[in-house]
Specification:
about 350 residues; 2 domains; mainly alpha; 3-stranded antiparallel sheet
Length: about 350
């Protein structure tokens, strides 16, 4: 029995060695092929590949987003510099970001109005601060969205270059500068989509799965409503318009009320700073926290401690005109930890004028 076991073991080892010897040339060729492909990739393509591996193997969307953004910068920054050094390129880039800046200014004005309950024209520095807070996500989001659109058009551009290649066009050299440009374009588009989903997840403080489901539901309902608008009856078209309106407003109200605006109640014994910081940490989403920061900036930096108008204790004021003021008071029961009240200005000068009129 022992001899039979030894013979079986010897035969198994021998067969395993034969298989390893037979597979060794294939392994060597495969390794050499993979090394050739790896060294033929550009730096951006290597980062795209690492991002794909991190997404598939580690399932880390954060690491995937970091690698993808780095790859996009490495790949498109030289093209951006080349475009910037041309007159038309400068005009295009400045126009693009001027449009973004205009939308950011308008959005920041509306946010300041929402927080302070008065026109943003009375809070110039707060408006500037809100613009600084909202400019990075707007610029990054629109830039990534533009890159997505470019990725959709890039395969068609490469196909056109291939079609004109028999006519001796030198522009076809663009294709030979990288390994597998079509596959790279598709991979870039997929990874850029992951970055946008992750960015929305970070801004709204929601899981990436929930963001993806919301996008899928929006596209599905939008497509159905579009078909109804094209082919449906007038009554069906009216229903479709209402459905589109609900879907447009859904992202703002998709959270439960307790998650849309987390308000912490002032706990007895805690100081004002602790309550305010707890309120800030309980607030969900980048934009909601930005509103808290805007209210805090208006109170701590732009509002005046002293005023000719009568004001409550521990409050600050911003004068709207000669007769009205905005009184700002810390209040953790309010959505952004500060209460903004428009009041009539009670000034000693007004009392003197009234007394003179009464005397006359």
């Amino acid at each position: 029995m022992l001899r039979y076991f030894k013979v079986t073991t010897w035969r198994a080892n021998r067969q395993l060695k034969q298989q390893n010897a037979a597979l060794k040339p294939h392994k060597a060729r495969l390794t050499k092929r993979l090394q050739t492909i790896w060294f033929s990739l550009s730096t951006a393509q290597k980062l795209y590949l690492l991002a794909l591996i991190s997404l598939v193997v580690f399932q880390s969307t954060s690491l995937t987003s970091i690698l993808t953004v780095t790859a996009l910068i490495v790949e498109f920054w030289p093209k951006f510099i080349t475009l910037w050094h041309s007159l038309a390129g400068k005009a295009l880039i400045l126009l693009f970001y001027a449009i973004i800046a205009n939308f950011v200014l308008a959005s920041a004005s509306g946010i300041v109005n929402e927080v302070t309950l008065v026109s943003a024209a009375h809070f110039n520095y707060t408006h500037n601060f809100a613009t600084l807070l909202y400019l990075p996500p707007w610029a990054l989001g629109i830039t990534l969205f533009t890159l997505l659109i470019v990725q959709l058009l890039l395969p068609f551009y490469i196909v056109i270059l291939l079609l004109i290649k028999p006519f001796g066009s030198d522009r076809v050299k663009f294709i030979t500068q990288s390994y597998s440009p079509l596959l790279t374009a598709l991979l870039r588009f997929a990874l850029a989509s992951v970055v946008i989903i992750n960015l929305v997840s970070f801004i709204d403080d929601k899981p990436t799965e929930a963001v993806f489901d919301d996008l899928v539901n929006s596209f599905t309902s939008g497509a159905e409503a579009g078909r109804t608008l094209v082919k449906g009856t007038p009554q069906g078209q009216l229903v479709a318009v209402n459905e589109l309106t609900k879907n447009t407003e859904a992202p703002q109200s998709s959270r439960p009320p307790n998650e849309q605006q987390s308000v912490t109640v002032n706990v007895e014994g805690d100081n004002e700073a602790a309550n305010s910081m707890r309120h800030f940490l309980d607030t969900k989403g980048y934009f909601e926290r930005s509103k808290w920061l805007i209210a805090s900036f208006a109170y701590n930096f732009e509002a005046d401690d002293f005023s000719r108008c009568a004001k409550a204790k521990n409050s600050k004021v911003v004068e709207l005109n000669d007769y009205e003021i905005v009184e700002i008071t810390p209040d953790n029961t309010m959505p952004y930890s500060y209460k903004f009240i428009v009041k009539a200005c009670e000034s000693p000068a007004f009392k003197t004028m009234l007394n003179k009129r009464n005397a006359n």
